[in-house]
Amino acid sequence: MNLDFLRFGIFDEIEAFWLENMGVEPALLQLSAGSLNFEVCSHDLAGLTVTWVRSEGRQLWHDTANEGAVHFGYVIDSQGPVVSGGIEVGSCDAMVWMPSKEINYLLEGPLTSVEFTIPDELAAMLGWKLKGPPLQKVFKADLDNLTHSALMASEWLNANSDCVPEVLAIRKQIWRDWILEALSKVLVPWLNSRSSGILPNPSTRKFRMIKSAVAMFDAADPDLDLDVDEIAANLGVSRRTLFYSFQKELGIGPRRYFELRRLHALRRDLAKSHRDEQTVTNLAHLHGFTQLGRMASVYKEHFGETPSETLGKSN
C-alpha cells in the first residue's frame, strides 16, 4: 500500500479528525496501554471521501453518524478479532453508519480498514436510499474489487498531487465514478433491504448486559466509589457473571473498564483546559479520582505522558 499516512498520537486527535472529515461523532476508549500507532490517509474525490486507516492496540468505539452523508466501511486485514455488538465480524462483513444511530465495535490490531463518505446530495443523485441493519454480509469478490479500485485511485493521487489543477479535477471525477460503480455493488444488501425501517445491530446477551452496566455507571455520582456488586445486583446477575461478561467481550474486568472511562474523560478535559485556569488536582477530583498519586501513575502508563504534560499542551 503505497500511501502517505498521517499519524495521530492521542485518541482526542483521532476523534477530532473523524468528526471534521467524515461526519462521524466518535467516542474512542483505548483499552490497551501505549500508542495506538493510529495512521490515516484520506482523499477527497469530487465529493466522495476515501479514508484508509491503520492502527494497533485494542480500541472500543462508540460512533454516531451525523446527518448529511452516507458512511460505509470494512476491515481489510486484522491480526486480532473485530467485534460489533458482541458478535465477531468476518471478512465478508461490512457496515453502514446510519444517521443518529450509535454503533459499537471493538478492534484489536494491527489492522487495516477503509471507509467511504458519500454526501447526501451525491447519494440522492445516484438514487441511493439505504436502510436495514448496519452490519451485513457482502460478496467477498465485490469487496475486493472495491478495495482494488479505491487503492488505485489513492495511490495515483499520492503520486500525482502536484498535477495541473484542471487535470487533477478531471481525474478525481473519473476515479470517483469508478469507485461509485464498485460501491453500488457492495451496497446492494442495504439498497435492496425489505426492512421498513432502520434495525438495530444484533448483539449478544453479554454485550447488552455491559451496555446496561455502562448506563448505570454514567448515571452514578463520580464522587462515589464504584460498587460493582451494586451494579450486578441491579442487573439481576452475580458479580462473577458481570465480571465474566466484561472479560469475555472486552478483555478487561468492569472496575478496570470504568477506571479507563474516567481516565479518558479526564484526558479530554485536560486537553481542552489551560494551565492558568485549571489544575490537574481539580479536574481529577471532578472525575472521581481521590488517590492522585495512583491516578497519575496509571495515566502515564496508559497514555505515555503525565496529566500535567497533557494540561500543558493546551497553553
* Strand elements, count: 12
- Order of helical and strand elements: EHEEEEEEEEEEHEHHHHHHHHHH
How many separate structural domains? 2
CATH topology of the largest domain: Jelly Rolls
Profile the largest sheet.
7 strands, antiparallel
Structural summary, described in words:
- The protein is of the alpha+beta class and 315 residues long.
- It folds into two domains: 6-191, Sandwich (Jelly Rolls), CATH 2.60.120.10; 205-312, Homeodomain-like (Arc Repressor Mutant, subunit A, Orthogonal Bundle), CATH 1.10.10.
- It has helices spanning 11-22, 120-126, 140-159, 165-186, 188-191, 205-219, 228-235, 239-250, 254-272, 280-286, 292-303, 307-312; strands at residues 6-8, 24-30, 38-45, 48-55, 58-65, 69-78, 82-84, 87-88, 93-97, 102-108, 111-119, 135-137.
- A hairpin with a 2-residue loop joins strand 3 and strand 4.
- The protein is globular and about 60 Å long.
- Mean pLDDT is 86; it is low at 194-201.
List the topology elements.
Layout: E1 6-8, H1 11-22, E2 24-30, E3 38-45, E4 48-55, E5 58-65, E6 69-78, E7 82-84, E8 87-88, E9 93-97, E10 102-108, E11 111-119, H2 120-126, E12 135-137, H3 140-159, H4 165-186, H5 188-191, H6 205-219, H7 228-235, H8 239-250, H9 254-272, H10 280-286, H11 292-303, H12 307-312
Antiparallel strand pairs: 1-3, 2-5, 3-4, 4-11, 5-10, 6-9, 6-11, 7-8, 7-10, 9-12
Please summarize what this structure is.
46% of the residues lie in helices and 23% in strands.
